[in-house]
Specification:
The structure is a single chain. With 463 residues, this protein is an all-alpha fold. Among the domains are: 56 residues, Annexin (Annexin V, domain 1, Orthogonal Bundle); 76 residues, Annexin V, domain 1 (Orthogonal Bundle), CATH 1.10.220; 70 residues, Annexin (Annexin V, domain 1, Orthogonal Bundle), CATH 1.10.220.10. It has 20 helices and no strands. It is globular, with a radius of gyration of 23 Å.
Length: 463
């Protein structure tokens, strides 16, 4: 993780994974938001950094489009359209409470993020209650991700549904059309295409794709056509079917998810396979790793908007020490409980304070005290909290590094990153920052044919 300089000072360049100047004790790094602007691959780096709170020049948070576009600051505002792909609200505006913003949005740059070196808003401040008591302020629940709750858009999918049918009808298959239609759609558009295809042609789009394509190209197209929620459910079932359990898939889909997303996954899994997800996971895992995932599946994680309170951070730091280095043996369940029920901002503060107090990283402690699947799961949760974009970049590299490509993991991770284009732009920037090469270049070296073209289209490359 990176540490931040005092407010008003620009961070020095990182050298060899070193740390930035640390803020004073009791002050925590701000949440990661937009930390990795997309790179113009092959172009020289910008000469100046923009002032804090302003987006970098160019295409911050944008998504590569076919053809050439003007700089972000010169683009005209998009016309209002419900659920438009990548639509951003006017600066400073948020959707009403309980409503999901249009697909691809993130909070306006600089909001929900304190200035450098300052703790989150409300940090350490008592909440006033009746009679001068202390009552916690109500915390709004984190809304489900796009595609994880019933939602419709005013968008006509007829042309795309007909194009898909024409591409698979008769002799031969038009693979380029399949890629063009499916690789750049958001979850709500995919649902509309799938439903329109069935209504117009009385056929199942996923079954047609499976009958007309093959190998990893088929696997990727089907993942796109299902949409994020349905694909999560199918991947979970596949990971727990047959000999052995694919622990990496369980980690990818279940860990560090919002309560709303986990509840949606559990509901659809039960509806699809007539068995609770808890029972399925319990039958595949054992001992304390099983208990770890049962805590996760309770979906009782602190909501993202919950403020970080220093007394709670200090208590968790002490409990983590007492459960690991401060005793003979390890209290695994206590560590699992803390990392599974706190939000990312809190975990980030705990990791920072742990290093300040004990002069070692929490990641090193987990590596020393744990092993196997539990170690991997705890590191997944910690790394996602400290830098979610760099963590996603590392997961993509992990699917490609070494002898042979773990294609199922690569496809699942590329498609999962692809659903949120603002997130994708940051992950691409993080990947290049860490590995000194573009994600597209890396994928080209590990895939080929229509499979390669589909993966490249999913990350916004022209194919």
């Amino acid at each position: 993780m990176s540490y931040y300089p005092p407010y008003g000072q620009a961070p020095p360049p990182q050298q060899g994974g070193g740390y930035y100047q640390q803020p004073p004790p009791g002050q925590y790094p701000p949440p990661q938001q937009g930390g990795y602007p997309p790179q113009q691959y092959g172009a020289p780096p910008p000469q100046q950094q923009p002032p804090y709170g302003a987006p970098p020049p160019g295409q911050y948070g944008g998504y590569p489009q076919q053809g050439q576009q003007p700089p972000y600051s010169q683009q005209p505002p998009p016309p209002p359209q419900q659920g438009a792909y990548g639509q951003q609200p006017p600066y400073g505006q948020q959707p009403p409470y309980g409503q999901q913003p249009p697909y691809g949005q993130q909070p306006p740059y600089g909001q929900q993020q304190p200035p450098y070196g300052q703790p989150p808003a409300g940090y350490g401040a008592p909440q006033g209650g009746y009679g001068g008591g202390y009552a916690p302020a109500p915390v709004p629940p984190t809304p489900p991700s796009v595609g994880y709750a019933p939602q419709s858009i005013n968008w006509d999918a007829t042309a795309d549904a007909n194009a898909l049918r024409s591409a698979m009808k008769g002799f031969g298959t038009d693979e380029k059309t399949l890629i063009r239609v499916l690789a750049d759609k958001d979850p709500l558009q995919v649902d509309a295409i799938r439903n329109t295809y069935h209504r117009l042609h009385r056929r199942d789009l996923i079954k047609d794709i499976e009958s007309e394509t093959s190998s990893w190209f088929e696997y990727g197209l089907v993942a796109l056509a299902r949409g994020p929620l349905l694909n999560d459910v199918h991947m979970l079932h596949s990971a727990m079917s047959g000999p052995g359990t694919k622990e990496s898939v369980l980690n990818d889909i279940l860990l560090s998810r919002s309560n709303a997303d986990l509840r949606a996954i559990k509901a659809l899994y039960h509806q699809t396979y007539h068995r609770s997800l808890e029972d399925a996971v319990r039958g595949e895992l054992s001992l304390k790793t099983e208990r770890h995932f049962m805590i996760v599946l309770q979906a009782t994680r602190a909501e993202d908007a919950a403020p970080v309170q220093k007394p709670e951070v200090d208590r968790d730091v002490q409990e983590l020490y007492n459960a690991t280095e401060g005793k003979i043996g390890t209290d695994e369940i206590r560590v699992c409980s803390i990392l599974s029920t706190r939000n990312d901002n809190h975990i980030r503060a705990v990791a920072f304070e742990y290093r300040q107090r004990y002069a070692r990283s929490l990641e090193d402690v987990i590596r020393k005290e744990f092993s196997g699947h539990m170690e991997d799961a705890l590191l997944f949760q910690l790394r996602h909290a400290t830098d979610k974009y760099m963590h996603q970049a590392a997961l993509l590299e992990d699917a490609m590094v070494g002898a042979g490509t773990r294609d199922k993991l690569l496809i699942g991770r590329v498609v999962r990153v692809h659903w949120d284009r603002a997130n994708l732009a940051n992950v691409r920037g993080a990947y290049e920052k860490r590995y000194n090469k573009s994600l597209a270049h890396r994928i080209r070296g590990e895939t080929s044919g229509d499979y390669e073209r589909l993966m490249l289209a999913c990350i916004g490359e022209r194919v």
